[in-house]
Inverse folding.
């Protein structure tokens, strides 16, 4: 059951980052629209929906396995049930029409903040997680769009999209890091001993992967992007390779995050900080 839980959460997170992320990135980067990226986007939304449904099904099994009215009410009143409903509605809006895509992606990010350890602390913590997920989604979706643009755009057009991504990434990375630091502080407080727990060690592994990701992004911005703007031969191919490396690191981060949000929990001895007077509970 634990393995299935991790797989369902991995599928959920992957679908969110890719599906919502491509919508967010498409809105700000203004790339060449092509059918292939839309198909990937919709497929990712389906995967996210399937992951959410699987998560609810696993919750039902843990509650006894029989799905009756009482169990349905318990699920619907839980943060996982509410998050699944919001996510599925957002996925539907994201897949139906271009005019509703952004609203749908925003609802998906909100759903990510409803469920999880942080949302149990406070509404503000859930909002911070939503911002964190939205920024991470934009980054992931933006990288996928850049890979797609490399194959269909001429070099000047591709360079323009890369420059827009590079400029916007500074803000997104700032939001990503600020929200991530807040979430860690909110979960663990100032307890250094918490980092010695299994949860803390896995969290540190995730932070190392994030550092690797930031180094790759910095290399792209300082070395490869200028070479691309100067039309240096091979710069576009080199950029594509480093983007694929970034996506590989993101895939590892997704798996680690799935572990942190399913089979692992913050140590009970950590100093929990609540920044909102109202607890988020249903």
């Amino acid at each position: 059951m634990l393995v299935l839980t991790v797989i369902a959460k991995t599928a959920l997170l992957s679908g969110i980052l890719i599906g919502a992320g491509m919508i967010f990135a498409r809105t700000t980067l203004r790339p060449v629209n092509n059918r292939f990226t839309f198909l990937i986007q919709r497929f990712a939304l389906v995967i996210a929906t399937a992951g959410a449904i699987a998560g609810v099904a696993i919750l039902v099994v843990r509650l006894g396995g029989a799905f009756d009215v009482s169990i349905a009410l318990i699920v619907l009143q839980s943060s996982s049930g509410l998050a699944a409903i919001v996510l599925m509605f957002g996925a539907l809006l994201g897949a139906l029409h271009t005019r509703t895509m952004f609203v749908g992606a925003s609802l998906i990010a909100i759903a990510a903040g409803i469920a999880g350890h942080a949302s149990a602390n406070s509404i503000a913590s859930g909002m911070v997680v939503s911002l964190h997920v939205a920024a991470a989604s934009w980054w992931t979706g933006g990288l996928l769009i850049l890979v797609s643009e490399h194959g269909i755009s001429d070099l000047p057009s591709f360079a323009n999209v890369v420059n827009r991504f590079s400029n916007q990434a500074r803000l997104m990375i700032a939001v990503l890091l600020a929200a991530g630091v807040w979430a860690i502080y909110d979960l663990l407080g100032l307890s250094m001993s918490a980092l010695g727990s299994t949860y803390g060690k896995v969290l540190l592994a995730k932070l190392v992967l994030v550092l690797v990701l930031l180094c790759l992004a910095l290399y792209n911005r300082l070395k490869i992007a200028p070479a691309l703007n100067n039309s240096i031969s091979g710069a576009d191919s080199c950029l594509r390779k480093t983007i694929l490396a970034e996506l590989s690191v993101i895939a590892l981060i997704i798996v680690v995050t799935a572990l942190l949000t399913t089979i692992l929990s913050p140590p009970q001895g950590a100093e929990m900080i609540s920044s909102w007077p109202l607890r988020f509970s249903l």
Notes: Residues 207 and 253 are 9 Å apart (CA to CA).
